[in-house]
Amino acid sequence: MTLSTSPEGVSQGRRVSPVGVGRAHAKAVLLGEHAVVYGAEALAVPLPQLTVTASARRSGRQTEGPGDVSFTVAGPLSRPVAAQASDGLRRLISEFSAAMRVEDRPHLEVTLDCAIPHGRGLGSSAACARAVVHALADLHGRQVTEDETFALVQTAENVAHGRSSGVDARAVGAWAPLLFREGEVQELSVGCQGVFVVADSGVVGRTKDAVELLRDAFQMRRGAKEEFLRRAARLTEEARYALADGRAEQLGRRLTDYHELLRAAGLSTGAIDGLVEAALTAGSLGAKITGGGLGGCVIAVTGTEQADEVEQRLRAAGAVRSWAVPMRGSADDER
């Protein structure tokens, strides 16, 4: 199925530009964290308020070798994070040149202006990579398909994080909620009225630690992995159909149930649990941690009228910022 993609994100012609520009946005996982790594389904929603813009230009500097590149990062990404991300992006640029048969490889100056907080499970590294892919396409006058973009973003993601499920690489280019499984995606039908509220705890998540913690737990008890995946798959499937059928209360309950699944596995924190409780007390239909765990963000399902109150309660409970995203599919998008 063809996904709705940003018109700014796709190079439409073969004109070579003096400066190439590409954009992407954040995402949040609705359900399916950790299970998706083992081949299960995950549901994700785009966060179009949080964007990254990449620009690429040829430099007049003397190159140190083919594919030589320098990076400048603006926004909330820290310098250590920028240095770590640059390894994956350098690999991505090399792979782009090979795949798109770019023979001229001058020194490149790449600038990333990223408003996506790092380490919160919001897809900052994948969004940066996607933006760079489309900046390079614009710069070199190439067209890239969604599948080509996905493969290139995964190149950077696998360097940055080890084996990546791919959900971030797909979701940071989508404009509607989507279902992801083993690299394939489809847009979700949305019959609910309401709002997704995402709140940042201000604490960097530790995805790698969380993955290892869960893997160790699976090894300690026979059947633990199968039990976790079975429960995760059922909750994700039920949430998918609740979203499509307009059963917002059931959708919310499935989110809270999934949070309990992750909390029981040791993947939440006291601060995250406090935010979940605050969202529920304020009238949310359901709430959970989103992303790898051990920090990061909370996502809540609320009615439209309750969204402001929920955001206020979340901030009072310690969230450093929050974003509200209306529930809608691509057919409802008036971009």
UniProtKB/TrEMBL annotation:
Compartments, record wording: Cytoplasm
Involved pathway(s): Isoprenoid biosynthesis; isopentenyl diphosphate biosynthesis via mevalonate pathway; isopentenyl diphosphate from (R)-mevalonate: step 1/3
Family membership noted in the UniProt record: Belongs to the GHMP kinase family. Mevalonate kinase subfamily.
UniProt-recorded name of the protein: mevalonate kinase
Pfam families linked to this entry: GHMP_kinases_C, GHMP_kinases_N
UniProt KW keywords: ATP-binding, Cytoplasm, Kinase, Lipid biosynthesis, Lipid metabolism, Magnesium, Nucleotide-binding, Transferase
Principal localisation: cytoplasm
UniProt cross-references to InterPro entries, sorted A to Z: GHMP_kinase_C_dom, GHMP_kinase_C_sf, GHMP_kinase_N_dom, GHMP_knse_ATP-bd_CS, Mev_gal_kin, Ribosomal_Su5_D2-typ_SF, Ribsml_uS5_D2-typ_fold_subgr
Transmembrane segments annotated in the record for this chain: none
Organism: Streptomyces diacarni
GO MF annotations, alphabetized: ATP binding; mevalonate kinase activity
Domain GHMP kinase C-terminal: start-end pairs: 240-318
GO biological process: one example: isopentenyl diphosphate biosynthetic process, mevalonate pathway
Sequence ranges assigned to domain GHMP kinase N-terminal in this UniProt record: 101-169
EC number from the UniProt entry: 2.7.1.36
GO CC annotations on file: cytosol
Enzyme class: transferase
Superkingdom of the source species: Bacteria
